From TrEMBL:
One of its GO terms (cellular component) is cytosol. It comes from Acidithiobacillus thiooxidans. GO terms for molecular function: oxidoreductase activity. It comes from the Bacteria. Residues 47-231 form the NADP-dependent oxidoreductase domain. Coiled coil: none annotated. Keywords: Oxidoreductase. This is Oxidoreductase. Gene3D superfamilies: NADP-dependent oxidoreductase domain (3.20.20.100). The keyword Transport does not apply.
Length: 381
């Protein structure tokens, strides 16, 4: 459903609403569970609900809606979804969960919704011929050209990203998404080269700056898988300063850009964003992606916290030894990422309400002190 097809819930997260939200849980959640989103004074929970995983069926839709509703009523005010997730069903389930939470008294100004676009939305399921689908649903409708397509699944055109943004607003029922991320633009680099990819990304950022002006989003950013973890000489590497430069051009001279978020994988088995010094920080030195993001005033959101479920099933010895007070491998894996200096929000994808108990148990804990975290991290290395 497109955003124009129904009445959308107005508003977005703000400082007053989010502070009131924090006050609701002052007696039940850890003191440092919330932190400021950059200089906006919007309070974000240290944990967020991801909605990528799950079967494409009604049972999962109901489960995701229940997870979102319960999380919002339990001190988790960050929800992450994508226009393509579960062929568009995830966004609608998020919308149902939000509606349920708001009916129970949660206000729109209290929570923060992250949306994504880039990967094709195969409504109803993956087609037998993705290229034919692309020609019929994207090219024929003026939303992109074949040169904008990568791996038959990803479209980097301003028109298609704008369409996905509107589609996701309709799916979730929200007039304004708090942030919208371009998902894995690096997949185009092997096909067209980094310079051409940046040219396309500039056009997309320009459309997203316009979306800010139209109150469709408040901020934007990118979500990556490889770009911020690989070495600088790797084909897929992207520098944060280059992305900032594109955002400045997109905003136009004299205007402040709205690029604010980088989402990237991070867990005990994928620590490169913290350990690999590959980014110019903006202060004349080289640091990790997480360090550079902090200095460049970008918020880091961590994905793949449980390594697609592996870290919920298998113990990491250093985590088991370093966080013995938590009940199981999943809780330890979440707490490890959540305690990483410089990570603003730790996202955990869930499609079963049974997983929410571990998630909420971690929210009640203080993040690990830096010294304790680093000692455990040294053992892991």
């Amino acid at each position: 459903m497109n955003a124009a097809d129904k009445t959308l819930i107005p508003g977005a997260a703000n400082s007053v609403g989010s502070k009131a939200y924090v006050a609701r849980f002052a007696e039940t959640l850890a003191e440092e569970h919330f932190s400021d989103f950059l200089n906006t004074r919007i309070k974000l929970s240290s944990l967020g609900v991801g909605t990528f995983p799950g079967a494409v069926d009604d049972v999962t839709d109901l489960a995701v809606a229940a997870i979102v509703a319960q999380a919002l009523q339990s001190g988790i005010n960050v929800i992450d979804t994508g226009a393509n997730y579960r062929f568009g069903r995830a966004g609608r389930a998020v919308g149902a969960g939000i509606a349920k939470a708001m009916a129970a008294g949660i206000l729109r100004e209290e929570f923060f919704v992250v949306g994504k676009g880039g990967f094709l939305t195969f409504t109803g399921g993956r087609p037998e011929d993705p290229l034919a689908f692309f020609r019929e649903e994207v090219v024929a409708k003026g939303l992109g050209k074949e040169e904008d397509l990568a791996q038959n699944v990803h479209c980097l055109s301003p028109e298609y990203i704008a369409w996905q943004l509107d589609d996701l607003r309709g799916q979730t029922g929200l007039e304004t998404l708090d942030v919208f991320l371009v998902d894995q633009p690096e997949v185009h680099i092997p096909l067209i080269g980094k310079e051409r990819m940046y040219q396309k990304l500039l056009q997309v950022f320009t459309v997203l700056e316009q979306a800010v002006n139209e109150n469709k989003i408040r901020y934007y950013g990118i979500s990556t898988f490889n770009a911020c973890r690989v070495e600088t000489d790797h084909t897929l590497f992207q520098s944060l300063t280059s992305l900032i430069g594109l955002a400045e051009k997109a905003a136009g001279e004299g205007n402040r850009h709205h690029l604010r978020v980088v989402e990237l994988p991070f867990n005990a088995l994928m620590p490169e964003a913290y350990t690999r010094f590959s980014q110019v920080t903006g202060q004349g030195n080289i640091g990790s992606t997480i360090q550079a993001a902090f200095q460049l005033k970008l918020t880091v959101m961590a994905s793949h916290t449980l390594g697609k479920g592996l870290l919920a099933r298998e113990e990491i010895p250093s985590l088991q030894e370093g966080i013995p007070e938590l009940a199981n491998a999943a809780q330890r894996a979440i707490q490890f990422v959540r305690s990483t200096p410089g990570i603003g929000v730790t996202l955990v994808g869930m499609s079963s309400p049974l997983h929410l108990a571990d998630f909420l148990a971690v929210a009640k804990q203080l993040p690990l002190p830096k010294e304790r975290y680093l000692a455990m991290f040294e053992k892991e290395k």
